[in-house]
Amino acid sequence: MTSSSSKRARTTASSEPSDPYLLHYWPTIPGRGEFIRLCFEATSTPYTDVANSDRNTGMQTLKSLTSEPGTNSNPPHFAPPILQHGSLYISQVPAILLYLGPKLGLVPSDDDDDTAPYHINQLALTALDGFSNEAHDSHHPIAMGDYYESQKDAAKRRATDYLANRLPKFLAYFERALSSEASKGGEYLYGGQLSYADLVLWQGLDGVGFAFPKAVAKMKGQDEYKKVWGLYERVKGLQAVKAYLESERRLPYSNGIWRCYEELDEE
Fold first, then answer.
1. Is residue 244 within 8 Å of residue 193, measured between CB atoms?
2. 24 three-class SS
3. pTM, 2 dp
4. Chain segment 94-105, per-residue pLDDT in tens
5. Distance of CA 62 to CAs 40, 123, 250, Å?
6. How far apart, in whole angstroms, are the C-alpha atoms of residue 13 and residue 99?
7. What torsion, rounded to 10 degrees, do the Cα atoms 154, 160, 165, 170 define?
8. Which residues pair with 22 in a beta bridge?
9. Which residues contact 145 (CB under 8 A, 6 or more apart)?
10. What is the C-alpha separation between 230 and 243, in angstroms, rounded?
11. What whole-number distance in Å separates Cα of residue 92 and Cα of residue 194?
């Protein structure tokens, strides 16, 4: 081993299978942390939701993680969620999912398909765009730092376009994905088995259903999205997911990404 590779080995963050998983995210709301929680819950993987387990200590840790300069093996973090596993710290939902997917069995382990991690990430990123990012921007279309009440007119215009054009476009895409050969049967998005992309899509659909109950109820009744809503019910019915949704660990929606303003819903 060269001196440079030896130095690299000494300074690279690492984890062991026995190391506990710690999730650092804002307490009391599902938010982007919910995409990570669902991966643990669906696979019955033990983890600690730090700020919800100990509000004071958890928030102090979270503030430190998002303000400190980082280490020689972990860059600083802009915002939660942040996953801690051994000496490794990762932020940004897609990066955390890329890391957890293979470890939790949420990426196919078929050696003949070495592209699976990238295709599943593609699907998850699209779901995050359509059902998380754009859903959030429907109630905060101008300035994230301003109150909703200061941008209500713009929010109404944005939400109207989201429900009429953007949401149907994303639903149609995932209907197409479930109809593709890569789905291998149409029950899950890729490879004929549950992946983290399915969990991301499920949470996005559930959140949008909370934010726009009238519009989503109408779309559920349309035949053109039958496979999408079939996946939604299938994931919801998984034993581990069902138990989680019925537990106190599943946090209620409030002032996070998915917010229900009646005036933004379909009239």
1. no
2. strand
3. 0.93
4. 999 999 999 999
5. 20, 29, 20
6. 13
7. 90
8. 48, 84
9. none
10. 19
11. 22
